[in-house]
């Protein structure tokens, strides 16, 4: 009995110390306002329990508190969120704020130490090695694969003309095929077989990650092990890693044989291959390191791009004047050419502006954050060790200081002379600074390929009674689909 009392006293003492430490922590963050109705210790978590809650609430907190405010999501997650472009520049360029926030840990079992989730020291090494894989001459070689998959997408959509369709499932299967072919040199034919084990496993792992974000129990690594999702994740990750490992082993053997028989090197010092995996093999990374980077490209390169393409098509359906202007540009550049070339895609300036304006309104990565490992000051305001600093991209892109009539879809905002008037950190769909998206040029090229093909082949019409319900599901999506209607162009 005596031991029980001692244990009880120790537990009570630890709880009281934790409460005291939290009070001190919050006191040190007093420079930043918090939203109305913020609960002690729980903060704002009860208002943000589903994927459709977080964005409208963050916009509400921004209105109540100003550009920079405290966001408390339970007893362990406290953020300084901001839509201030100057503050964002400080966050994204500070060498003290290089580590990604705790949320990225939910991806680690699948992505390991790939560029998205890697600690700063590993990230710096891999980033330097991998950057040549996204050289424009490498991207130029991928256009054939982009075009062929976009043509399959057109074929699939041709079966659904003059009907209301949720465009997102069609696009996401196309981008999955593209990223598999360009990253690993293999096709899983997702567009032809959307119930294949690989496609289903990819959907499952993304769903499991989303479940962890919105569950206080699953956010805890200890408690997560007692949930069904934990065991589901182990099974799904084991399968996905087995697939990737097998492909790496096969390609390593092919790479070795080809290197012995075909030593030709092009003028940027890279053997004439198209695949991201082949390039990683040249860099001397281990199998696990290569697997992590390939899986990271898979994750970052298909769902985000699918979101961007789908929302762009939705915006075009509701802005026919923009769509007509875009069609005229595409028709004038391509003429009678069947497949666009890399250089023709670069000529499509209005298409680039359309995509950027869509990324402004519907950024696939609508927020991201960094962990604070030592006290940091910005404008004499303390951000204490243990906090997180978050960039609310969706809100930043709607700041009227940078964008007049911010809710309107106006691609002309991204004419060069207009862009030069704004802070470079007022538009960050691919992040910015040191840990910006390494694949942003590939993403833009993928978007151009799909949108160009669709606009060239179809008129995109609105479905006014089915407006998207914006949802944060690891990336920005619509919980009720993204509906459009297609009409075949004559």
Spell out the blueprint of helices and strands.
Layout: H1 2-28, H2 54-65, E1 68-72, E2 78-82, H3 85-93, H4 108-111, H5 120-130, H6 136-157, E3 164-166, H7 167-184, H8 197-213, H9 216-219, H10 221-224, H11 228-261, H12 276-282, H13 287-317, H14 320-334, H15 342-347, H16 349-361, E4 367-371, E5 376-378, E6 381-383, E7 388-392, H17 393-396, H18 416-419, H19 440-457, E8 458-462, E9 470-473, E10 475-478, E11 483-488
Parallel strand pairs: 2-7
Antiparallel strand pairs: 1-2, 3-11, 4-7, 5-6, 8-11, 9-10
Helix pairs in contact: 6-7, 6-19, 7-13, 8-11, 11-13, 13-16, 13-19
Description:
The protein is built from 19 helices and eleven strands. The protein is an alpha+beta fold and 490 residues long. It has one domain: Cytochrome P450 (Cytochrome p450), CATH 1.10.630.10. The strands form four sheets. Strands 1-2-7-4 form a four-stranded mixed β-sheet. A three-stranded antiparallel β-sheet has the order 3-11-8. Strands 5-6 form a two-stranded antiparallel ribbon. Helix 6 (136-157) runs antiparallel to helix 7, helix 7 packs antiparallel against helix 13 (287-317) and helix 11 packs across helix 13. The longest helix has 34 residues, at 228-261. Residues 265-271 have low confidence and may be disordered.
């Amino acid at each position: 009995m005596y031991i029980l009392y001692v244990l009880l006293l120790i537990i009570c003492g630890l709880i009281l110390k934790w409460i005291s430490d939290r009070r001190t922590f919050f006191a040190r963050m007093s420079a930043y306002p918090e939203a109305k109705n913020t609960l002690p210790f729980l903060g704002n978590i009860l208002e943000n329990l589903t994927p459709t809650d977080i964005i409208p609430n963050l916009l509400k907190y921004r209105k109540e508190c100003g550009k920079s405010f405290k966001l408390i999501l339970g007893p362990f997650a406290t953020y300084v969120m901001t839509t201030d472009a100057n503050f964002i520049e400080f966050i994204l360029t500070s060498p003290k704020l290089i580590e990604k926030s705790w949320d990225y840990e939910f991806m680690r079992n699948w992505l390991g130490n790939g560029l998205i989730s890697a600690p700063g020291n590993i990230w710096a090494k891999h980033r330097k090695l991998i950057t040549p894989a996204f050289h424009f001459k490498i991207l130029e070689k991928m256009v054939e694969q982009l075009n062929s998959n976009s043509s399959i997408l057109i074929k699939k959509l041709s079966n659904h003309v003059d009907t209301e369709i949720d465009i997102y499932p069609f696009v996401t299967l196309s981008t999955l095929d593209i990223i598999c072919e360009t990253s690993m040199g293999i096709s899983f034919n997702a567009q032809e077989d959307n119930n294949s084990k690989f496609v289903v496993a990819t959907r499952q792992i993304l769903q499991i990650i989303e479940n962890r974000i919105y569950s206080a129990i699953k956010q805890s690594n200890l408690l997560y092990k007692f949930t069904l999702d934990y065991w589901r994740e182990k099974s799904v990750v084991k399968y996905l890693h087995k697939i990737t490992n097998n492909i790496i082993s096969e390609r390593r053997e092919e790479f070795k044989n080809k290197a012995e028989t075909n030593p030709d090197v092009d003028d940027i010092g890279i053997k004439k291959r198209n695949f991201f995996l082949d390039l990683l093999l040249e860099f001397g990374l281990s199998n696990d390191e290569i697997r992590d980077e390939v899986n990271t490209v898979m994750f970052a390169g298909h769902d985000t791009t699918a979101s961007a393409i789908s929302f762009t098509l939705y915006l075009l359906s509701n802005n026919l004047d923009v769509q007509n202007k875009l069609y005229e540009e595409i028709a004038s550049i391509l003429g009678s050419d069947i497949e666009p070339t890399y250089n023709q895609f670069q000529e499509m300036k209005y298409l680039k502006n359309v995509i950027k304006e869509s990324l402004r309104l519907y950024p696939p990565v609508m927020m991201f954050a960094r962990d604070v490992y030592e006290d940091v000051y910005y404008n004499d305001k303390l951000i204490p060790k243990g906090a997180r600093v978050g960039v609310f991209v969706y809100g930043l892109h709607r700041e009227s200081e940078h964008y007049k009539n911010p809710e309107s879809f106006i691609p002309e905002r991204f004419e060069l002379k207009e862009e030069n008037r704004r802070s470079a950190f007022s538009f960050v769909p691919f992040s910015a600074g040191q840990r910006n998206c390494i694949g942003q040029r590939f993403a833009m090229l993928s978007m151009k390929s799909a949108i160009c093909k669709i606009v060239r082949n179809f008129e995109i019409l609105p479905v006014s009674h089915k407006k998207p319900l914006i949802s944060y599901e690891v990336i920005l999506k619509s919980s009720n689909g993204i509906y459009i209607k297609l009409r075949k162009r004559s």
